[in-house]
Amino acid sequence: MTDTPLLQVENLRAQFGRRDPLVAVDGISYDLRAGETLGIVGESGAGKSVSVRSLVGLIDDGEVTGSVEWRGEELVGAPTRELRAVRGSGIAMVFQNAEAAFDPIEPVGAQIVEAIRASRDLPKGAARAEAVDLLEEVGIGDPAGRFGDYPHEYSGGMAQRAGIAMALAGEPDLLIADEPTTGLDVSVQAGIVDLFRDLVAERDMSLLLISHNLGVVSQLCERIMVMYAGRIVERGSREQLLGSPRHPYTGAFLRSVPDVDVRQELEPIEGAPPSLDDPPAGCRFHPRCPAAEAGLCDVDAPPTVGFDDGDDPERHEATCHGYTDAHPGGDAFDREAVEWIEPAEDPERGER
Ligand code: SF4
Predict the structure, then answer these.
(1) Sheet hosting strand 73-74, strand order edge to edge
(2) Residue 218: is its pLDDT beyond 60?
(3) Domain 226-342 maps to which CATH number in 3.40.50.720, 3.90.180.10, 3.40.50.300, 3.30.750.24?
(4) Using one digit for the tens of pLDDT, what is the confidence trace for 283-322?
(5) Domain parsing of the chain, residue ranges
(6) How high is the mean pLDDT of the chain?
(7) 248 in contact with ligand 1, CB cutoff 6 A
(8) Contact 182, 251 (CB under 8 A)
(9) Does any ligand 1 atom lie closer than 6 A to the CB of residue 297?
(10) Contacts of 170 (CB under 8 A, 6+ apart)
(11) Cα(229) to centroid(ligand 1), Å
């Protein structure tokens, strides 16, 4: 892994509708270095999928603002042709419903050949041989025999593997996987997790993984960001997030998954996430937070707080009032670990 950022995301915002817009992603920033694995976790409706689709121009009916730099090249507002070129080679995506990535009336192998030839100038025979190799690499048994099968002839797990082969056709540097194991049987999920782990190691790719399943994310990602109601509420290394979660929402996540393991599905936390067209003022988690302080958490935007986690060099931060003197604190907040406190970015909005 090098320190060169492949992807730099600054204040990314995605909204739908002009009057009373629904802001699905509200000003998130992060970067991703070559060879790094980053996970975004959160409940359904947190804005995770929209956040990654916004990166590569896959939002048709919404407005995306902010900055997304891929190898230094701005993608927000880039022409469709440029975005297609990046999607064809640099960045590839795998979705939850892999079968939908394929045309139902064309054999799987032929579609992978097309994807290879769309990104590289290869003769048909060489592209066919490479497609068979890709099917083998993702664990399709008898790849030459399955090459001519149609998408509906693949089982759910096999279709997901074939979808990953399709994503690899352009030899991407970054693979974005959006809920890639959701809806699959438990044993099939475990196989897909193993496959991602092998691919990232062998191909030296970066991985950006979106999931509501903390178990899957924690098995594959070195860094994790927790998203709630369109915003990142905590970020840090896997060890920091799992070992010493600092945001009450992250804590609730972990308590709902007692043994972090691929077999555990994230259970809903009491209450429901807010509607993004009318989110709560102050901290968006306050209606569900057991530590919410009336007159503070429901009014003012929380600050971002950084923590000292010993030898771990990763930046660990959470956005919460609980570490400030304005909040009564309590057992949930280890104020001894606080390194710095940054005021809310936009206090006039009363939220962040
Ligand atoms: Fe809970 Fe307040 Fe922290 Fe939000 S800011 S997570 S409501 S303590």
Answers:
(1) 22-33, 5-16, 62-70, 73-74
(2) yes
(3) 3.40.50.300
(4) 999 999 999 999 999 999 999 999 998 888 889 999 999 9
(5) 5-225, 226-342
(6) 90
(7) yes
(8) no
(9) yes
(10) 88, 89, 90, 92, 115, 116, 118, 119, 120
(11) 13
Task: Decide: helix, strand or coil at residue 89.
Answer: helix
Between 89 and 6, where is the model more confident? Answer: 6
Superfamily for the 5-225 domain = P-loop containing nucleotide triphosphate hydrolases (3.40.50.300)
- Mean pLDDT, range 208-212, rounded to an integer: 93
Q: Do domains 5-225 and 226-342 have the same CATH topology?
A: yes
Q: Is 252 in the pocket of ligand 1 (CB under 6 A)?
A: no
In this structure, are residues 303 and 341 in contact, taking their beta carbons and an 8 Å threshold?
yes
Answer whether residue 262 shows pLDDT above 50: no
**What secondary structure letter does DSSP report for 183?**
T
pLDDT digits (tens, 9 = 90+) for 35-72: 999 999 998 889 999 999 999 988 888 999 999 999 99
Distance 111 CA to ligand 1 centre (A): 49
* CB of 291 sitting under 6 A from ligand 1: yes
Query: Which uninterrupted H or E stretch holds 339?
Result: strand 338-342
Q: What is the pLDDT of residue 4?
A: 66
| CA separation for the pair 230, 14 (Å, rounded) | 9
SS3 117: helix
**Listing from the earlier edge strand, what are the strands of the sheet with 91-94?**
91-94, 174-178, 206-211, 37-41, 223-228, 231-237, 316-319, 304-307, 338-342
CA distance 284 to 232: 11
